[in-house]
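Translate sequence into structure tokens.
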Amino acid sequence: MKGLMVQGTASSVGKSLICTAICRLLANEGKQVAPFKSQNMSGLSIQTEDGLEISVSQALQARAANTSYLPEMNPILLKPTKNMESDIIILGKKLNTMSGMHYREHFFEKGQELIQNSLSKLSVLYKYLILEGAGSPVEVNLRDRELVNMRVADMADVPVILVANIEYGGVFASIVGTLALLPEPQRVRVNGIIINKFQGDVSLFQDGISFIESYTGIDVLGVIPYFPNEFEEEDGEEKSGQKTSDGQIDEWASHFKKHVKWEKILSLLGNDVAIK
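Result follows.
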């Protein structure tokens, strides 16, 4: 399987939009690419052509990739209801309503099988997969049965890009702490770091880049200036039915490419990806 996974030091660091940008840039180069997020918790969904539900984020990424929405792109969708319960949407169809504890205790093995089967199907249909994680990969109280971060990177056997949000400070501790808490076999999957939502003169952050690279031994692939996000979001409020336009996706993808080492990102996808 050829692809990469975008994980974050926390929620809301910009993983979804970075996956969107990568999908659009690869599609613009004529690559057959698809998004994938194994498990998504979101109250917002979009229907496929067959009337099946997937998260708005994976639908946006599929649009960026110039391909149809498929339920395998988001095989598990958890839609919160009430009393700490969620509707469990499997391959676009409601299976049941469960509490978080019941889901954790009884769905783990089925979830792994479902994720592996979805990855296998997509890898036949597409040349490249862009995988998205959720939250942080080092929630140590949940890691033994997690279905969305490093376990999925191991299943797919893909490199990982770690994204950190500098907007609220603490970016060094969030990066170093995340890497420190990863088991070594998973830590070596992290092949690049992206700093997102930077405001100010990036030249003032050069010492920060040097520190991160020397301390972690991992390349900083880019420092992305703040970009106003008007796109559909899995954690956002439902907007007035107005979809993100192709022009907005192109604008974001261009902004992203301008501020990252795109050739290095391409190199993570496999040797047969043309580097331009």
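Note: The first strand starts at residue 2 and ends at 8.
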